[in-house]
Inverse folding.
């Protein structure tokens, strides 16, 4: 082998060695950059979002507390009494007491311990109470001295004359008269007024 060929082979070997060394160094530096990138990504994904989530949860809880429903001056208050013996419910629409304004549901339940909160919103509050009794909305219509008379049934079940109307039985039909003789039982003042209007 000539001296010239040996030099050429040596140069080619150095070039190949340089290329391989360069590729190896490039590969290592790339791996380091990738590792740094993944370490940073892991740090970002594990720490920063957690802090953001914590802040988010804290903000949501603050918002929830600040947006808790309260009674306003425009809230309608309904007291609903359920009478067990007759099975009727009577709604009483009452004027909202000033001391109830700005109360939460929990605060209201403290004030009305004997009542159950059925509906609680800024528009309307309905409180329910169960009473082991008859309601005072039961009436009977009878004939008295030629006129229709209204009797109210008290809580003991006894009849009390409430009113002798000016409606004469003389002009009623035989069907109406027979109904009066068998006593017409009516529940509620609205129904009572409708019945009396029909007889007039």
């Amino acid at each position: 082998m000539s001296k010239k060929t040996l030099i050429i082979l040596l140069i080619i070997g150095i070039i190949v060695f340089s290329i391989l060394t360069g590729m190896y160094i490039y590969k290592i530096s790339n791996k380091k950059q990738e590792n740094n990138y993944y370490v940073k990504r892991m740090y970002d994904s594990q720490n920063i979002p957690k802090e953001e989530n914590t802040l988010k949860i804290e903000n949501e809880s603050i918002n929830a507390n600040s947006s808790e429903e309260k009674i306003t001056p425009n809230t309608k208050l309904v007291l609903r009494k359920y009478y067990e013996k007759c099975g009727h419910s009577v709604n009483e629409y009452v004027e909202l007491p000033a001391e109830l304004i700005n109360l939460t549901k929990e605060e209201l339940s403290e004030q009305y311990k004997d009542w159950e909160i059925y509906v609680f919103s800024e528009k309307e509050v309905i409180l329910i109470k169960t009473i082991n009794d008859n309601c005072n909305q039961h009436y009977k219509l009878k004939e008295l001295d030629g006129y229709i008379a209204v009797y109210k049934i008290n809580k003991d079940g006894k009849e009390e004359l409430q009113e002798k109307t000016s409606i004469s039985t003389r002009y009623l039909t035989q069907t109406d008269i027979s109904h009066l003789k068998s006593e017409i039982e009516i529940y509620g003042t609205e129904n009572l007024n409708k019945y009396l209007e029909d007889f007039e």
